[in-house]
Each structure stands twice: as structure tokens, then as C-alpha cells.
Amino acid sequence: MTGGMGLVADKVDAGARLTFDDAMAVWACPDLPLIGRLAQHVRFRKHPDRVVTFIVSRNINYTNVCWVQCKFCAFYRLPKAADAYVLPHEEIYAKIQALVDVGGYEILIQGGLNPKLRIDYFEDLFGNIRARFPGVHIHGLSVSEILYIAKISKLSLEESLVRLRDAGMATIPGAGGEILDDEARDIIAPYKDSTEEWLHVMRVAHGLGMRSTATMMYGHVETIEHRIKHLMRVRELQDETGGFTAFAAWSFQPDGTDLPIKKRSSGLEHLKMMALARLMLDNVDGLQASWVTQGPKIAQVSLEYGVNDFGQTMMEENVVSAAGTSHYVNSEEICRLIRNAGYTPRLRNAYYDDMGDPDDLPRRAADATPDLPLAATRDA
Ligand code: SF4
After folding, report:
1. Domains and CATH numbers, the chain
2. What is the pTM assigned to this prediction?
3. What is d(CA 220, CA 72) in angstroms, rounded to the nearest whole number?
4. Residues with Cβ within 8 Å of residue 246, at least 6 apart in sequence
5. What phi and psi values does residue 170 have, to the nearest 5 degrees?
6. Residues whose beta carbon lies within 6 Å of some atom of ligand 1
7. pLDDT above 90: percentage of residues in the chain
8. Residue 63 has pLDDT above 60, yes or no
9. What's residue 303's pLDDT?
């Protein structure tokens, strides 16, 4: 091994931090198995056991109303659209009950920027969910939603986050990160929060003890330089706060969107992207598979490219499927995929604490005890 990749390999071996130029060398390297081996070196240094985790969770998209009109989004509807919706509370509770009935214990609740939903809507909804399902963890709201709720409720960002947290929103998904570089962001989502705003919301949330994930949506107008800068910005904020639990990346799905891009990223590109993320994000513990966009097989192979977590069961998915991609796997299938790859599946919570053996899920469901030991307002 010569040149840039030789240096990268030496740094990985020594546990040294990779630079922008190192990342460019990784991306330029055609030897994908080598990149995978380096990523696995980092993965096993962080997670020595052959364990792959996942969480039994469901997505709930409480509204599809949104005025932001991101060009990559096929999910939103403008407020007056015939098929615009806000889910009735009872329907949301029924969805959560269905999750609890299969032994699940986390909801990922996200929607759009709906001008009619101020903070009292969320306080009421989250408070009611907490009262009815005290063991169900609320992982909720994208940065854009949080900023907008604060704005239309005439609250500071900090006040808004504190009120959402006190109502039961415990952790924040990294959704809306897309590409953390305004050159690309301004093209795909001109009305959305900027890179600095996204990072600032995460910084404030982490300062309040709320943990979050970080994400990336790649494969549209961005360059590899944008992707690397994105990873470095996440890494810099993580140095500052330590609040990111994990990183996930998925490829842009074009159907039904306003971006004139028809090409979908390949599975090979995804594997390289995951390995690059593992190599660059030396201070983020978890790296999630993306079976929703890449399918279960590539997600399984990504376990050899630095990935240590299979993400979440979803029960339903409305955002990526609106853009033409539908892959569904349940917890049995996730376990099968993990075991067939030579790893042991374990359940986790949103903090990545071990939650036991997935083979116990039927018993948990039969017990119908949602009050698993999850503390919704636990300090990070
Ligand atoms: S990605 Fe989010 S903010 Fe953008 S249009 Fe879709 S729902 Fe709205």
C-alpha cells in the first residue's frame, strides 16, 4: 500500500484522527475491501464484541403539512392540499399500542412544519403519550420542526427545547441534517435551516442534556468534498458536546421529488460511505445501517464496513417510501440478517444501553408491560 492510503492505514492503526485530505484519499481508493477492513478496525476498537444492536421502534408521522417545500422531499403536502393530514390523537395512541403489543418501546415522531401546530399541541400530545405509555421513549422532531415550533410559539430555542423535553421528548433524531454544507443545502432546500442553525440546535439540545443522532442524506447535488465537510462538522460538534449517540447515512431517493436527478447511489457507494463515516467519526460511538434505502442485503453487508447497529424496526415508513423506495424488515428478520452475518443481535434503547435478548420480545409483548427501564428525561 502506497501514498495516501498507506498514511491512512498507519493513522487508523495508531488511532490517529483522519484529516480532510485523508478522507479524499479513502474516497479515491478503488480497493473497497481494504477500506472495509480499516473501518472494521475502528469498529472493533470501539465495540470489541461481535454484537449488532437494534431498537424496536415505530415511526409516527403526525402531520404531512409543511410549507418548506424541500426539493428532495416527496412526503410533504401544502396546508390546503386535499391529502394533507394531522393524525388524530387517538390514531397516534393506537399506533403506539400496536408497538407495545410487539414488545416495542420507542417512537420516532416526526412530521412537517405545520403553521397550525404550536408548542401547546406538542406538550399536550407528548404529555398524553407519557401518561398512557410511561415506558415508551419519545425520540422526536427534526431540527427544522423544533426551530419552527419555537418561532410560531414566540419562544427562544432554549425555552422551546426545555418545554418539549419536560413534556416527554427525550432524544432528537438527526433528521434534516441532509448535507451540512450550505452550498448544497441552498440548492436542495432553500427555505430550510442553514448548516449553522442545524448545528446550533444540536449544540443547545446537547447542552440541555438531550442526546441526538446525526444523519446525512447523500447522492443528490453534493460533492464528495461536501460529504467530508459534513462528517467533519459533526465530529467538531461532537468534540464540543459529546451529545451524538450515533450516525446514519442514506442515499437520496428521487421519485416524486423536485430534484431533476434520476440516478440512485449504488450499494457499493453506500458501503464506501459507511466505511468513510466510521473512519472519520472517531468520536461517535454508533454507526447505523440503512436498510430502508439500501435494502436488507446491503445493510447486512455494511456490517463488514464499520456498521455496528441495525437501526430501528419501523412498522411503517412514509417519507422514503413516498420517494419510491420501500423496504420493510421486522425484528425477526433483523435478527436473522445479523446472525447470518456472524454477529449476535441485541436490543438497545435510544441511549444505546443494552436492553436484552431479542428472543425475549414475544414474552415482553405478551406481558404488555411498556414500563421498561427507560428514563425519558435522563441526563446525557
Ligand atoms: S423534508 Fe421536512 S421540512 Fe422539508 S419539505 Fe419535507 S417535511 Fe418539510
Report:
1. 31-367 (3.20.20.70)
2. 0.92
3. 8
4. 213, 214, 284, 285, 286, 287, 288, 309, 352
5. -90, -40
6. 66, 68-70, 73, 75-76, 112-113, 144, 189, 192
7. 81
8. yes
9. 98
